[in-house]
Amino acid sequence: MPIKRAAYKQIRADRKKAFKNASGISAIKTATKKVNKIISSKNKDKIKSALRDFSSVVSKVAQKGIIHKKKGSRIISRMSKKAASLLK
User: Fold this and answer.
1) CA–CA separation, 88 vs 74, rounded Å?
2) DSSP 11
3) What CA–CA distance (Å, rounded) separates 57 from 75?
4) How far is CA 20 from CA 39, 62, 73, 77, in A?
5) E-assigned strand segments in 1-42
6) What is the C-alpha separation between 26 and 1, in angstroms, rounded?
7) Is the confidence at residue 88, as pLDDT, over 80?
8) What is the mean pLDDT of the segment spanning 76-88?
9) Residue 76 · residue 54 · CB < 8 Å
10) Which of 47, 35, 78, 17 shows the shortest CA–CA distance to 70?
11) CA distance 70 to 47
């Protein structure tokens, strides 16, 4: 157990950060599953809108620093490439 008051405060802050990080990662996973499901259904109209929503979620998470900005760009790029192969 911590002895100093600041250590208790740091524990509280760490819990908040962990919750925020977990929710961000979860949002990315959920959006990824949604886009993959729509890509497998091969509905071109829905693919575009789902990809736009996916890009938005990933960009927001990267902007907040939960994931690295370049990782966010890489994730978006890979999903866009996957969707583009069906849209042609």
Assistant:
1) 21
2) H
3) 11
4) 29, 13, 20, 24
5) none
6) 30
7) no
8) 91
9) yes
10) 78
11) 23
* Amino acid 45: pLDDT: 87
CA distance 34 to 37: 5
Structural domains in the chain plus CATH codes = 5-87 (1.20.58.110)
In degrees rounded to 5, what are phi and psi of residue 3? Answer: -100, -45
Intra-chain end-to-end CA distance of the chain, in Å: 59
Both structure tokens of 77: 């790029």
Sign of the torsion formed by the C-alpha atoms of 72, 75, 79 and 84: positive
Digit-coded pLDDT (tens) for 11-65: 999 999 999 999 999 999 999 999 999 999 988 889 999 999 999 999 999 999 9
Q: State how far the alpha carbon of 27 is from the alpha carbons of 13, 15, 19, 57, 72, in Å.
A: 21, 18, 12, 7, 13
